[in-house]
Design brief:
mainly alpha, about 0% strand, about 75% helix
Amino acid sequence: MKAMERFYYIEVYKLFKRKDVFWSLLISVFLLLLFGLLAKTGSDILTIRGEKFSAIQYAIMMFGFLKTLFFFCFIFIIFTSSTFAGELEKGNLSLLLVRSENRVKIILSKVLALLTVLMVFIFFVIFSGIISYYIFLYNIKFATNEFLGKEYLRFLYMPLLSIFEIALLIMITMLLSLFFGVYKTNLLSIGLIILMKVLEKVDKIKVFIPTYLADINAWGNIYKTEHELLIKVMQNIGFLSIYIAIVLIVTLCYFSKMEIKN
């Protein structure tokens, strides 16, 4: 257990030391502040309509906007492919195997490190959205001047579902990284996202598509009570968790047997 803990801290350090991780986090925080400024000045680039919103509701709406641009999907595909395919190409994984023959610990430490970075990204994006709200939007007509507001749970489900959706994408990209180089892995992962978005249009199978399961805007309005919505959210998280477990098990089994070149 100590070996895995040590590997985990090493992987977290390596990820946060990377320039692409640092700049992606900085850009995501900057965009949330910029959105608030644009809304404050009444810019045509970003217009706000509809009901009033609280601080947390605004922050999660902006998180959702970044999600619709596939911002999180793209950056975590890049982070994951470079973490796995990149290290396989450079021979860095073989150096880790010298320290530990347990390949499961090595790959799990990398997965946990990527999930840690994901949680940090989501926290800072939502936090910067809240800061943006109080700096720029607190006194505009669309602001309620509340922190949580009404039906805030419906908003909180979005980042919760997104964690499982992006975690699944990390697992899939990780699996592809064992077969392909960085460039092909990135293309295949992005292509898979596009394919899933297309399959969402097919009524008979969309309920099994991960991107649909995680998109509360696509099915959330069907459920009128908080209890019904909670059950549906938990059900979808269950499906996503099964997908994650299947891909992770396949990856661990293959990685445990594959030949790694120096």
